[in-house]
Amino acid sequence: MDNHEDALGSQPYILPRDLIGAAQDTSWELSRSLEEISGRYLTHRQVTAISFEDGATTVKLGASEIARFLGQLRPMAMDSATPAHPRPPEIKFGSTTAKSVLRFIELFLEELRGIICKGGKSLSTTTKGALVAVASWLAAKFGVLPHIATAVATAILVAALTATKGAFCKMTAEQAKAALAASAISDKR
Asked: In the predicted model, is pLDDT for residue 1 greater than 50?
């Protein structure tokens, strides 16, 4: 069964349009912030977006990795004489970055659900409000720079909603953790 199919297996889960737009914008802005001209060359600075402890291991996610993860939601250019119906952008969890984002969500699930969810049933506010709240938490708890915190918050929300097929707030903690783990395992493309 495809990673993005709902429980009935009939339709793939599609992220909310405003979250897709936020991910596209954030990916582009973050990528641009890492570029600099050095002599005559365009270079990309390597910046750690966030680091966290996973048992005895310290996991470090780079800002460029977060930008690439979110970049999966950028529209693809089609070069064809035959028009094709555009497919909604989708997130794949095969990369190390994606698996690390899923693991971060799993480790901090209770705190994130407290920030993102309202009464355990839906997003506590608009998508933008949820992103701001998570970004503020990341900045306060992990010392993440503001523009990077927004990108990491976007990656967290995109991964959480995609892995749980939009039911992140409706699931029990155990169900959410199982969905996150299943996404990390099943999407090896």
From this structure: no
What's the whole-model pTM score? 0.82
**Contact assessment for residue 181 and residue 106, using Cβ atoms and an 8 Å cutoff:** yes
Helical pair 146-163 and 109-116, crossing angle rounded to 10 deg: 100
DSSP 67-88: HHHHHTTSPPP---SS--PPPP
* Packed helices 17-33 and 63-71: angle between N→C axes, nearest 10 degrees: 140
What's phi and psi for 121, nearest 5 deg? Answer: -120, -25
Helical packing angle, 17-33 and 127-142, nearest 10°: 40
- Give 167-184 pLDDT, tens digit per residue: 999 999 999 999 999 988
Cα 86 to Cα 78, 90, 167, 174: the distances in Å are 9, 12, 25, 35
State the pLDDT at residue 153: 96
Q: What is the pLDDT of residue 47?
A: 87
- Region at 37 (left for phi over 0; alpha for psi -120 to 50; beta for the rest): beta
Under 8 Å CB-to-CB from 40, ≥6 apart: which residues?
none
φ/ψ bin of 157: left (φ > 0), alpha (ψ from -120 to 50), beta (otherwise):
alpha
Residue 124 has pLDDT above 60, yes or no: no
What are the tokens at 80?
A: 């064809």
